[in-house]
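FAQ: What does the model actually see?

It sees only this:
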Amino acid sequence: MAEAAIKQANFLWEGTDKKGNRIKGKTVASSEAAVKADLRRQGIAPLKIRKQSAFLSKSSGRRITAADIAFFSRQLATMMSAGVPLVQAMDIIGRGHANPRMQDMVLGIKANVESGNTLADSLAKEPLYFDDLFVSLVRAGEQSGALETLLDKIATYKEKTEAIKKKIKKALVYPAAVVVVAIVVSAILLIFVIPEFQDLFSSFGADLPAFTKMVINLSQSVRSEGWLYVTVIILAIVGFLQAKKRSRKFRIWLDKVSLKIPVIGMILTKSAIARFARTLSTMFAAGVNLVEALQSVSGATGNIIYEQATLRMRDQVSTGQQLNLAMSQTGLFPHVVVQMIAIGEEAGSVDTMSAKVADFYEEEVDNAVDSLSSLMEPFIMAILGVLVGGLVVAMYLPIFKLGSVI
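And it is asked to produce this:
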């Protein structure tokens, strides 16, 4: 199987259809002979076939995003629900995608399916884009004969997850961008504008206010040692990213601290609970047993603290403990969530109750993000006032003092 996947390559071809029209396209296959056979099956007489450069196929097009995978899931679910065969649906999606990288990947998956692999196994060969949860749900759909239903649930799950991510990013990116702009404007004032005022003040021969002296000293420091400040900032950012990437202990500490940040921590907590409930609901609806479902749910929460808690819950559930009791012992889930899961367990409808919890907390995240955006506006204005306004006031203080003496 792995050997067959390695031999797959992109081929560019030209040919004529049944009406004699000249057409061209791209196909993923193991050899030129396979491309010719595929084209003849479609009623196309091949004229030219050449293997596409591996460098070109990998470097062209933008990178594949989670939004692309969500859209692919929805397209595949829609087509299969409409009765389109899997291979044909993959071919339509692949050839119609605007992103060449996504096009190559989908056609590669289609080629793997045509060679006899299951869809789940074919998706598992692209672990960067299809995680264990996605593959497990597709496998469950194939085994139960309800693949189109499961694909619809996967598409809904992906769309909901991406919507939450976008909401949180929207709340955090805007204030961060404004702060960066304020810092850039302040740096321009310190490097280019304040030195002009300094030359003007030196001609006065009078004592400058303490605040003005402090700003002038800061301007001199930035001009003479600016490279050092920039280097320290870059090293701090790189160090932070590397520590986050390589050190699990640092990520655990970071996730723990982030949950305690006022307002933002509350949004991250509700987001983690929403993901937990949405994933649990989707896995249960697919007929996956609870212990296996919790394994997949742990990686979907988006926070290591909730991931560790879910894995502890999995261990407790595997020994026969009820899910709601295991949840209450973590201390991370609100009482209302635990009680709704308990009702679901008693009624045998954990998937339905989990979906209701997910709907509620996704709406809570939406409302909290909107509130955060409103709260951030005066905070941002205050930062702009302190950074930029402070520098301007410092430069005008000596002029006011001179005016009062005259």
